[in-house]
What does this fold into?
Amino acid sequence: MQQAIIIPASGRARRGFGDAVFATTARASGGLVLLLLGGIILSLFIGGIAAFREFGPGFVFSTEWDPVHQKFGALVSIYGTLITSAIALVLAVPVAFGVAFFLTELAPAWMRRPVGTAIELLAAVPSIIYGMWGFFVIVPIMSSTIQPAIINFFDGIPVLQDLFAGPPFGTGIFTAALILAVMVIPFVAATMRDVFDTVPAVYKESAYGVGCTTWEVMRSIVLPYTRVSVVGGIMLGLGRALGETMAVTFVIGNADRISETVFGSGNTIASIVALEFPESPQGSLKLASLLALGFILFVISFIVLAISRMLLKPKATGG
Amino acid sequence: MTFRTTALAIALAGFSFAAHAQTQITGAGSTFAAPIYGKWAEAGATATGVKLNYQAIGSGAGINQINNRTVDFGASDMPVKAEDLTAHKLMQFPTVIGGVDIIVNLPGIKANELKLTGPVLADIYLGKITKWNDPEIAKINAGMKLPSLAIATVHRADGSGTTFVFTDYLSMQSAEWKSKVGSSTSVAWPNGAGGKGSDGVAATVQHIPGGIGYDESAYAEQNHLTTALMMNKAGKFVAPTMAAFVAAAGNADWSKVQNFAIDLNDQPGAASWPIESATFVLLPLDPKDEKQSTAVKKFFDWGFEHGDDIATSLLYIPLPQSVHAAIRTAWKAVPGTM
It folds into this structure.
């Protein structure tokens, strides 16, 4: 009896103390994240302020990147970052949707686990591996087979022949976007599969009950029910694509100019920072410009996040 | 040989006590020079008692580190300007020399068959010559069947000392290159694609028929890349061989330059290869610990005395003996014995 009284008492006391410690730790962790985020933004801005001061708002709109004459502009890498991510999403989202659709609705039960695991494994491959694979496997195929074929196919068609033109380097904006798409697919597909699985079976069964086809169930029941999370998954993929460094650096061709063709070389904010950082003396305008680029990438990610929130809001309340 | 063994024995005896208490020196910078410093450190460890901790982080980063005095010496592939040396209280000396090869990928054309001149090379990289059968190239390659391929220029995407040497050479050869592009570790390339690192440039050139690029001679040699002949100052076409690199270094006039900041590009002599450069080490004139700068000097002294064969085996070009002597004299300005 005595023991039975003592144990809960001491247990309660310990629990009270533990609660306090846990609450403080949790609060501190939350605060630390905010502090870190603010600190990174601030230090990037302070580091890049020399570039903003020197070039003014023109920094964002200038296509020049000339280390010899100390003229730096961000537009080429901003353009490269946005265009590669956009093309990557265009390529990745349909495939990811197909994968998730197949896994949740069509695949036989024995297949779902292994294929699902394989997709998660793809997401865990380090980006340097994608870069090397891209450079040593995909780039030669692109330059010897795919690019010449596409260039010939569109030759003579206005607009498209200019979009797909130029010497088949193999590297370039399109190859980078392709590699990015492969890297993004697992993220988007895994998210989509997980959220498709959350749709209550009774909804789907009801739809099938009134004679819907599998596609109609997907379009009218599953997608509306999971829209918010699907867009969230795509945004997750976009976030990865915007900041991807190593894989892109290997295959984008790394040229400081905007090409009019998607096979042309370019660079992204992340790739130019990775390449130029080691050769940027302290206090130089180049280093400031690179830090300013980092700040701009931060802002772009922020805008993307904000837009996705805005897109989701009215629909979320409506649905 | 016997002299060398004796010298080694004396050195061993002299430093036998030091070998027990090893001094660790730290260096940072040039990736190009990292293999030779590593090998010198390994081979000379017992004789000098110096253990090297070298970080191959790139020349620019190496200069930053030594300016901040976070390492005992910095290493740069590009000579530091005299005013910067004074501002940061640094002493500069070269250690070894590396050549830069021109590599090409032309169907049916083997190594050291294609001939190029500096001005033609500059026009190719400027985008003024765009086809391999351009009359300018055909003129210097009489009798060779040149394909009607587009020229795809390839350059280093990452900031690199190799790019500095190459663009410095083009600036010498073409006034237009000098005014439009100039020379630096990374420049605003008028056209072409960038490869990351020496391997990136080599692989990109090999992917594209009609490709042309530049790489360190050691890398080109080890990977059996298809190199081109270049015309030197004497008007002779030379192949990128060890003999040609040594000839250029030997024909250079080292006595006239300050801080050893010599430009080895386009040196006179019929056998000289026109594109090459020394790699440099930066020592603080106000070291925090004199023992450390003594150890650094001891390390490089061993390398100059016994390391030429190692350098040659790694396909670096050793400095001429007279330059070794001049460096030892210049070291007197740096605190610490030797």
Summary: Chain B has two domains: 2-97+277-333, 100-252+266-275.
